[in-house]
Design brief:
The chain folds into 2 domains: 3-154, Carbamoyl-phosphate synthase small subunit, N-terminal domain (Glucose Oxidase, domain 1), CATH 3.50.30; 165-365, Class I glutamine amidotransferase (GATase) domain (Rossmann fold, 3-Layer(aba) Sandwich), CATH 3.40.50. Helix content is 25%, strand content 31%. It has 12 helices and 19 strands. Composed of two chains; the small (or glutamine) chain promotes the hydrolysis of glutamine to ammonia, which is used by the large (or ammonia) chain to synthesize carbamoyl phosphate. Tetramer of heterodimers (alpha,beta)4.
């Protein structure tokens, strides 16, 4: 019997904050992990999801039933390694059919010490999370009693008020793109995805990626043409350092563009509030309406916090540019009289539809005006 087959026989438990308990089969590394549980409705792109730094500290439930069937490929990583805390799937495949795959998902999860559970009713679980809202959970494939699981679960911090960008941001600045490119863009790395950097570089921008806590003055020494505020994990209201940097960027009058957490930071810098959502939006098929063009776009999303639409609509500083058609939340804004805009979704859409990639062009066009 191979190592992988042996491991599929190990039992695992998923224990939720509300006391509900699910039994299944262990995948990945044998161990115990805790974090906020959330679900992603995407039908493809599991590796991109696991390596997205925005999921740092979270246990991800894949709602599509077959996971692992196309293995993993190094070139599809959105960061250097998986950033999820734990993984919950319905049917897990040790074998993969893609000829170009580098390894099986099981080998990949073991290599990166990710604990997971399979063979449980993810539809039932997702319904519970959907109704009760995001909550903390623990996965264990070790022989622990329910009392021990409860003790460990009590130690998991709440996502509300949690600052996490500093854990996933680059320690040292690095460059992406052609140094002879026409424009230089300073990237404030709050937990950036690799494919976002690729999109900016492919449009003629040379990027310098800075640690989340870098001051505006330090970034400005490089003399960039504009600034990009990236996606990332955690509660935006706990990030005063980034909010102050965003204020300085806007005061400079240079073009700036924010995605997801970057969008929330720009809003907070303009005096707009943010809040923790009941569930968040995570998937590849969220409809958004662009209020400027009147067109709708299908978008890739991943966020558990949102910007107050009421605050945006009552503000003299910003205007609403996009709304989420599922729940009418704020999905984009423009700072009045400034070359600063932001969206609450992922225009690089890796994985996902390509409807929103015009936003990268919109950003770089600001350098020409």
């Amino acid at each position: 019997m191979s190592h992988n087959q042996e491991q599929t026989q190990t039992k695992a438990v998923l224990y939720l904050e509300d006391g509900s308990r699910y039994e299944g089969i262990a995948i990945g590394k044998i161990g115990t992990v805790g974090g906020e549980i959330c679900f992603n409705t995407g039908m493809t792109g599991y590796q991109e999801i696991y390596t997205d730094p925005s999921y740092y500290g979270q246990i991800v439930v894949n709602t599509t039933s077959h996971i692992g069937n196309y293995g993993v490929l190094d070139s599809e990583q959105e960061s250097d390694a998986p950033k999820i805390r734990g993984l919950v799937v319905n049917t897990f495949s040790n074998d993969f059919s893609r000829p170009t795959g580098d390894s099986s998902l099981q080998e990949y999860l073991e290599k990166h010490n990710i604990v997971g559970i399979s063979e449980l009713d993810t539809r039932l679980l997702v319904r519970e999370i959907r109704n009760k809202g995001a909550m903390n959970a623990i996965i264990s494939s070790e022989d622990l009693t329910d009392e021990q699981l409860q003790e460990k679960l009590a130690e998991v911090p709440s996502m509300n008020g949690l600052e996490l960008s500093s854990f996933v941001s680059t320690k040292e600045p690095y460059f992406v793109g052609d140094e002879n490119a026409e424009y230089k863009v300073a990237v404030l790395d709050l937990g950036v995805k690799t494919s976002i950097l690729k999109h900016l570089a492919s449009r003629g921008a040379y990027l310098k990626v800075f640690n989340a806590k870098t001051s505006f003055a330090e970034m400005e020494e490089w003399q960039p043409h504009g600034y990009f505020l990236s996606n990332g994990p955690g509660d935006p209201s706990a990030m005063e350092y980034a909010i102050n940097t965003a204020k300085d960027i806007m005061a400079s009058g240079k073009p700036s563009f924010g995605i997801c957490l970057g969008h929330q930071i720009i809003a907070l810098a303009c005096g707009i509030g943010t809040f923790k959502m009941h569930n968040g939006h995570r998937g590849l098929n969220h409809p958004v309406k662009n209020l400027v063009s009147g067109k709708s776009e299908v978008t890739s999303q991943n966020h558990g916090f949102a910007v107050s639409r009421e605050d945006v609509e009552n503000s003299d500083v910003v205007e609403l540019t996009h709304i989420n058609l599922n729940d009418q939340t704020c999905a984009g804004l423009q700072v009045k009289g400034q070359k600063t805009f932001s969206v609450q979704y992922h225009p690089e859409s890796s994985p996902g539809p390509h409807d929103s990639r015009y936003l990268f062009d919109q950003f770089l066009n600001l350098f020409k005006s």
